[in-house]
Design brief:
Blueprint: H1 4-15, H2 21-36, E1 40-45, E2 54-62, E3 67-69, E4 73-75, H3 80-89, E5 91-94, H4 107-114, E6 118-126, E7 129-138, H5 147-168
Antiparallel strand pairs: 1-2, 1-7, 2-3, 2-4, 5-6, 6-7
Helix pairs in contact: 1-2, 1-5
Length: 169
Amino acid sequence: MFDKPKVLAISKQLMDGGMASSAFYEQLTRTLAEEMGCTRASLWRYPDPELRMSIECLSLYDRTDAKWTNGAVLKEEDFGPYFEAMRRDNLIVAGDARANPITSCFNEIYFEPLGIYSLLDVGINIGGTPFGLFCCENTTDILDWTPEHVEYLRQVGTLLGYALRKAAG
């Protein structure tokens, strides 16, 4: 179902020094959106991995306009149930994100203005330390995430951890 060699090829370019990290993040998020069949895919990092009270967007790819953005910061004080769930489970599967008690805190500020219906977030650890998360969103309709979606993102997260460690030397 998913094309892991595509992600492997992108990661190899980063590890070999043939791609800057910002270009890697862009290629990775575009590939994730395509592979997951969703409209938006993003990579976020925890500025403070120990506390995990905020996340910063390294790259968000939106397939509807084929553009990337980055730099957004989300804080626990604004989205408490979401942050609690990510610390506890390192995973949020919300096919109907607006009705999900963990993600409905995003409705007014984020989901409704952007037309987002579904969200799947999978945490990323590097060497056992929390790094951040992948976020996949769908804006056209409710997307029922499968165990295969979750497993694919977990595998990509493991690969990302390895690639970032190796690229850092």
